[in-house]
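Progress note, sequence design subtask.
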């Protein structure tokens, strides 16, 4: 194996040296307003180009970064340069009277709920930053920043986007947690979708119901609760009066699934109750989140609960995804999923019927990006309705 040589960065002024840290540069670029993927890619390219020198000065690193920014992301040059040159950083005083550096990345995250394109988000954050750099207010409060951002949203994106932004700010200041519950059958893309929304909303806690079931399996022997030790689509095999073949009794499939979901539901409720106590936003995803469980959380008012069922409505597409899932993860063999494919499809049909009966939103997941936008839209609508209800009371 070829030896990887470290890139050392020298600081002549401080008379110190340290390894080149891609993560630190990535974070600096994010603070300048860049998205993580773009910042990480640029930091990687900078490291690759400087690696040949072995040792460089911090000025050399900054010059290399500036060169890449001017070529690829000219809109972030001024913001990055201001930070690395040690110029006065804009400080925002929050509601607890604590000063924090103005961050375009943080501002971009707060605009996620507005339903804007990436380009429009960057345009607005850049306009806000340019105004702040030009006016240089002696004291900038978080309320001031909200008013400035709202004004630019009205000018560039319209009243609906500005309204959504104010609702999101109001919600984040309320201290109430957001609990997004993403249900759906095996292979529909719940985990990927949940991770994408978590990234967009900067939610650090996610919980899989499959993981809850695994923990419960370790604690409870199979002889005591046999259905817990099956998969959701073949839990019927653990029923006391199970049919010889599932095709002979579709009700057995549903009964087995509901039995296991109710068992895992104990853990789901515990996770939600802890999120409420600690006031921490959370995303829960898993097949065990059936619409009947959602209805039991409707009366909660100290948290914002947003449920949805994710579905792949084309049989061929779902089959293809299950095959790909088996190839990507060694422990998830596609043969097993294909063996029970008809049961998985029937289970999805049941979940969709239940979602319709309990008026739970259904998100079709044929396009991952569009599905993520649809979930964000559900959250925005839920928050807006909640805000309007609170305003009337």
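Output:
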């Amino acid at each position: 194996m070829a030896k990887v040589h470290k890139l050392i960065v020298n600081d002549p002024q401080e008379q110190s040296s340290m390894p080149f840290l891609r993560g630190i540069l990535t974070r600096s670029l994010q603070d300048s307003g860049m998205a993580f993927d773009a910042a990480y890619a640029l930091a990687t390219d900078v490291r690759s180009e400087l690696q040949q020198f072995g040792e460089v000065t911090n000025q050399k690193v900054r010059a290399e970064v500036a060169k890449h920014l001017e070529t690829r992301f000219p809109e972030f040059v001024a913001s990055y340069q201001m930070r690395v040159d040690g110029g006065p950083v804009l400080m925002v005083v929050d509601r607890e009277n604590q000063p924090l550096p103005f961050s375009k990345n943080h501002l971009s995250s707060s605009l996620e709920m507005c339903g804007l394109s990436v380009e429009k988000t960057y345009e607005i954050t850049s306009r806000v930053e340019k105004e702040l750099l030009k006016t240089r207010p002696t004291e900038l409060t978080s309320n001031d920043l909200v008013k400035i951002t709202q004004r630019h949203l009205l000018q560039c994106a319209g009243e609906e986007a500005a309204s959504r932004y104010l609702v999101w700010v109001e919600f984040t200041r309320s201290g109430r947690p957001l609990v997004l519950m993403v249900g759906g059958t095996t292979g529909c893309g719940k985990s990927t979708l949940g991770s994408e929304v978590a990234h967009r909303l900067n939610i650090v806690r996610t919980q899989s119901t499959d993981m809850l079931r695994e923990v419960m399996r370790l604690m409870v022997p199979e002889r005591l609760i046999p259905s817990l030790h099956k998969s959701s689509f073949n839990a019927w095999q653990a029923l006391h009066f199970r049919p010889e073949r599932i095709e002979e009794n579709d009700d057995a499939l549903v009964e087995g699934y509901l039995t296991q979901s109710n068992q895992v539901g104990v853990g789901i409720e515990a996770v939600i109750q802890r999120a409420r106590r600690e006031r921490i936003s959370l995303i829960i995803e898993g097949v065990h989140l059936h619409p009947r469980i959602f209805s039991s959380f409707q009366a909660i008012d100290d948290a914002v609960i947003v449920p949805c069922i994710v579905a792949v409505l084309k049989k061929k597409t779902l089959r293809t995804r299950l095959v790909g899932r088996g190839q990507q993860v060694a422990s998830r063999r596609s043969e097993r999923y294909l063996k029970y494919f008809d049961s998985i499809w029937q289970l999805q049909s049941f979940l969709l019927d239940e979602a319709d009966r309990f008026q739970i939103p259904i998100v079709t997941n044929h396009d991952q990006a569009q599905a993520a936008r649809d979930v964000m839209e559900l959250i925005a609508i839920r928050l807006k309705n909640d805000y309007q209800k609170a305003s009337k009371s």
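The first helix runs from residue 22 to 31. Work on this subtask will continue into the next period as scheduled.
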